[in-house]
Amino acid sequence: MTPALVFDIETIPDVAGLRAAWDLADLTGDDAVVEAAAERRRLKVGHDFLPHHLQRVVAISCVFRDADGVRVRSLGTPQDDEPRLIQDFFRTVDRYMPQIVSWNGGGFDLPVLHYRAMIHGVQSSRYWETGERDREFRYNNYLNRYHSRHLDLMDMLAMFTGRANAPLDEMAKLCGFPGKLGMDGSKVWHAWREGRIASIRDYCETDVANTWLLYCRFMLINGQLSPEEYRGELALFRETIGKLDGHHWAEYLAAWPQ
Question: Tens digits of per-residue pLDDT, 207-242?
Fold first, then answer.
C-alpha cells in the first residue's frame, strides 16, 4: 500500500513580515498592523485576504494511512514555531514519499508552505524533485498539477477551473460527513490573539478528517475501493478517532450519523 498523507494548514497574518515588506513598522500593536494591511487589500483587490507569502503557518494537521492503519494528528506541539512545523511536514514527505491529498492545496496550502519554507530555509530533497536526480520523478512528482503525487481533490473535481470549485464544508455535509465544527478560517487570527492555539489545532484536525473522508469517497467512485472496502475505511476511521482524546472528536462523532 502506498502511504497517503492528507493535510490541511491554518494560517494567520505574518505581522513581522507585513512590517518589513509593506513598510508598516511605525504602527504600534499587531492588530493595528493587520487592520492596516487588510484595508490596503480591500482598496486594491476588494477583499482583505492576504497574499500567500504573508500567511504565517500556525497549525498543520494530517491523516496518515498506510499498511499499519490510520492516524490523525497535528504536527509538532502547540509551542513549536513555524519553521519546526514546516520542517515536520516536509520531513514526513521525504521519509515516506506518500500520496499527498488536499482540498485546495494547490491553490493555497502548498504555495503558502513553499513561500514559508523559502523564508525559513527549510530543506526537502524529495518533495522538490522533478527528475534531475531521480528519473522516476520526471513523470510523477509533487509539483506538476497533472501528476498524481499530489492530488488537490477540490481542483480535480472542478476540472481545474475555479468557476466550479466547491467548499470543503458543503461537500462534506452533502456526502453525509460532519463538515466544519465551531470555527472557520476567518476566526483563526482572533483565536490566536486570545491564545487558543489548541482550538485552532482541533479545528484543523476536523477539517483534515473531512478531507480524508471525501478522499475515501473519491476512491470509491473511481474504483480504487470497492463498496465493501470503502465501508471498511470509514469504520476504521470512526474507530480510530473514537479512541482519541479531545472534545472536538466527541463532537465530530456526534455529528456523523451511523
Answer: 999 999 999 999 999 999 999 999 999 999 999 999
C-alpha separations of 33 from 38, 118, 182, 186 in Å? 9, 23, 27, 17
- DSSP-assigned beta bridge partners for residue 72: 63
Domain enclosing residue 241, as ranges? 4-254
Which segments in the chain show pLDDT lower than 70?
none
Give Cα 240 to chain centroid, integer Å: 20
pLDDT score recorded for residue 165 = 97
CA distances from 141 to 128, 151, 155, 181 (A): 8, 11, 17, 34
The structural domain count of the chain equals: 1
Residue-level length of the chain: 258
> Strand runs (DSSP E) across the chain, as ranges?
4-13, 55-66, 69-74, 99-102, 150-152
Where b means 16+ CB within 10 Å and e means fewer, 85-110 reads bbbbbbbbbeebbbbbbbbbbbebbb
**Residue 232 is part of a domain; what is its CATH number?**
3.30.420.10
User: Residues 135-169: pLDDT tens digits?
Assistant: 999 999 999 988 989 999 999 999 999 899 999 99
DSSP per-residue letters across 226-242: -HHHHHHHHHHHHHHHH
pTM > 0.85: yes or no: yes
